[in-house]
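Quick one: structure tokens for this chain, please?
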Amino acid sequence: MANDRAPTRIQRKNRAAILDAALNVFSAHGFRGATVDQIAAEAGLSKPNLLYYFPSKEAIHTALLSGLLDTWLDPLRALEDNGDPLEEILGYVRRKLQMSQELPRESRLFANELVQGAPRIHEALSQDLKALVDEKAALMERWMDQGRIARVHPYHLIFSIWSLTQHYADFDVQVRAVLGEEDPFAGAPDFLETLYRRLLTPRP
């Protein structure tokens, strides 16, 4: 914003409205397809008013992504090394699926950024995300070495969880077209739990 004074209630309200509107526009059209005019119209503000808070489309997008990345990493951070390994991983699956149900716009925003080569968050992916995934993959390896879960490739296990849970948000139209009246989130939790429980339960 134009100065460093604490924002007023109206300023906080307008900033929140801009970010919420931008989330709608970016998740629907991607970064390249979105315009400042679309975001301003969605927020119910004039373009000059919007540009008082954010100087460019890039600035709005970066603000959304910086907050989103932390949200996206939190469920993986929650894996506890002193918990039951299978239940910890199943809990992670449930949390990721819940995010797809409750934060579909955020998921599509993140997916659009990755499809475009992650130009605005590549550094965070190669540093923060990689460090966290390395840490949790090593934890899963220890659980496998201890015989507490079946041996699988830990990185591909994490990738599969991302794919199978975020699919319900990123391909929502396709999923609902196939299922018709059935709520995708009615059957998904049991299916994914059965899948990962069978995959990870150690065999005699």
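The mean pLDDT is 93.
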